[in-house]
Write a structure and sequence with these properties.
- Helix content is 50%, strand content 0%.
- The chain has six helices and no strands.
- The protein is an all-alpha fold.
């Protein structure tokens, strides 16, 4: 019976859509050594829960798919600020902007 629960858990783990994957990518960058945002345990779960297929508008999956792979390469800590406004203790370490100045 233990293998049934493992198989079920594996199936559920693979059922995330691209918007939910984007939640994970954004959280990983936010909590990285570069950004040092502090997220509560429930914030990632809430983001994933709020982006199930039945809650997305037409075209949302396409937008998420467009941006999902760009987070680590093209997003900066400043880009995350609107999504986690109170989570970086009002500091963004210097040198974490991916824009050319």
């Amino acid at each position: 019976m233990h293998w049934i629960s493992l198989a079920f858990a594996a199936i559920l783990a693979g059922c995330h859509n691209t918007c939910q994957d984007l939640c994970k990518e954004m959280a990983a960058l936010a909590e990285s050594e570069d950004c040092q945002f502090t997220l509560s345990d429930g914030e990632l779960r809430e983001c994933i829960r709020n982006h199930t297929r039945d809650q997305l508008a037409d075209g949302d999956l396409d937008v998420c798919e467009e941006f999902a792979d760009t987070v680590p390469q093209e997003w900066s800590c400043d880009d995350l600020q609107p999504y986690f406004p109170a989570r970086n203790n009002n500091t963004v370490p210097s040198g974490n902007s991916n824009t050319d100045e």
